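Re: beginner question about structure tokens

> Can someone show what the tokenized structure looks like for a real chain? I only ever see the sequence side.

Sure, here's an example I had lying around. Input first:
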Amino acid sequence: MRLTYSMADQDFARTKSVGIFNVALGLAERIALRPELSRFTLLANSTLADRLRLPPTVAVHPCNQAIAGRLRRMFWDQRGVYRAAARTGNEWLCLPKGFASFVSRCPVKLATYVHDTIHDFYRENYPGTMRSLESAYFLRSLLASIRYSRIVFTNSEFSRSEILRLARKQGLATPEVVRVGIGFTPEKRLRTEKDDRLLVMTTRLPHKRADLAVDYIARWHSDSGFQGAIDWLGSLPANLTLPDRPGWRMHARVSDEQLAQMLTRSRALIYLTEYEGFGMPPVEAVLAGTCPVYSQIPVTSEVMRGLGCPFENSSYESFAQAMNQALLVSSDVLDNWGGRLLEWHDWDKVVDRFIRGLIEVDSAPAHS
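And the corresponding structure tokens:
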């Protein structure tokens, strides 16, 4: 089996989702090691040179046009990536961001990794929030993935059900949709003294519920008498500002190393959301030795299986109880949780499911 894998359109400095970038990178590195592939070809760009850890047998094709401005990126999405895939001579193309061309058919067998159906979620729940042309573009690309992929991989059973729901809603015949999951790499972690601080992850996007985070954390801050610092990482909606409270600080995007240090030294990670395809930060927090306090929605319940300190978005009392519990969780408990999460979300199992999925559909007739 010969596979082409495209990361040419991904640039860490400009990505809107660090999580999707890291999943695409981790998946590429591990697929490249599989003996079932007689050839693995990566379509890349120059920004990935210091991030790729691939065996020398991998052919890396430079495709910098994919990140050379919006119009060239759109041309790459709609035609360029397929032309590049055809030139490799491989029979499969995998698009790990999950967006296929809606103006041309893939000349080889197409596999996509779809992370979520967030654009459909926004159209239904927050109409007008996203730029209409951009949202329409990505939704059409997502529907093309459902329509033309021989197989769609995804990160959770929740996302799988969302893809099937969207296909039914649009009247599309669906390809094989397989949950492969996301893997996490065990890091050698030295026990460290915690700073008296909390870390809150938020963005300007309304589904991250920054408004609820500010409200709940301010109330808990007053009720609990917490005297430490509270670091807010990311951004806030234009109509929302942090209250002037002692120890509250806003940080823009930080490097991977800075984030790891902030996460390791915090007593808890606070993560509010109402929609995710997977929701990586609570898992990453546990693996860093920090207790996650997170929104209990269907996908986080699936991913975390009750570990950490979940709360209901609709209840401040539930949030306050989770916060108070998190500050009491010991390092031994966190170590136990980390081992269980690594067993559930193991890269080898992810790639096993990926390869098995390709093999099972490889000789099956394409759907129309």
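Each token stands for a local structural state, so reading them left to right follows the chain. The chain has a mean pLDDT of 93.
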